[in-house]
Amino acid sequence: MAHRPRIKICCIKSVAEARAAVAHGADAIGLVSAMPSGAGIIADERLIPEIANAVPPLVATFLLTSLTDTAAIIAQHQCCRTSTIQLVDALTRGTHADLRHALPGIRIVQVIHVLDDASVTEALAAAPQVDALLLDSGNPNLAVKELGGTGRTHNWALSRRIVESADKPVLLAGGLRPDNVAAAWTAVRPWGFDICSGVRTNDHLDAVKLAAFFAAVATLS
User: Which end of the chain is more exposed for a tag (fewer CB within 10 A), N or C?
Assistant: First the structure.
């Protein structure tokens, strides 16, 4: 029997938004720290632990970090204190093992921006080192990196290959909306979905879109 896909509502910017996401059934929320571009950035990082602390203990809290130095990521997390770290870029100094050693019990999710066949190779290399993968539609190769919140879909056939080959849970992100999540489920069969722009209007969580997304996911089988 197929599992119910888990749902992470990302780009949460306030305690009220977090509570709304949880009330609709979110399994996780995402809190976006400083990024070179994208939606939902929390300019005052002191808000991140405040929002995380307001979330029930069984709902995961993700710190989205664009930092690539493990020492800096560890210091950031010690201030933010979420249950999970979402690495939206590749590490350039230190390893996933360094993060595990310094932050026992904190889950690590590596984002893979799905661009081409090399992204599949990158995902399968990262999978053994982390608790889950998140497949998104950014482009870290641009002069101003896109590391999430683009509102674009990507090549779901590549994502399906990662889901079938990686021995870890895989979350699908990138351009998901109430009207295309069923197609995404059929094409990719991820462990869960991660949505930001598809449930926001004018950079605010939209209760109507949120309800529509959860209703659409409830019909999946």
Answer: N
- Model-wide pTM > 0.90: yes
For the stretch 118-165, pLDDT in tens is 999 999 999 999 999 999 988 888 888 878 878 899 999 999 999 999
Distance CA 8, CA 94 (A): 27
Does 1 map to a domain? Answer: no
- Give the Å distances, CA to CA, from 88 to 6, 42, 151, 154: 19, 15, 15, 16
The token pair that represents 111 in the structure block: 């984002």
Count of structural domains, the chain: 1
State the residue for tokens 């870890």: 168
CATH number for 34: 3.20.20.70
| CA within 13 Å, CB half, 170 | 28
**By residue range, what is the domain housing residue 204?**
6-218
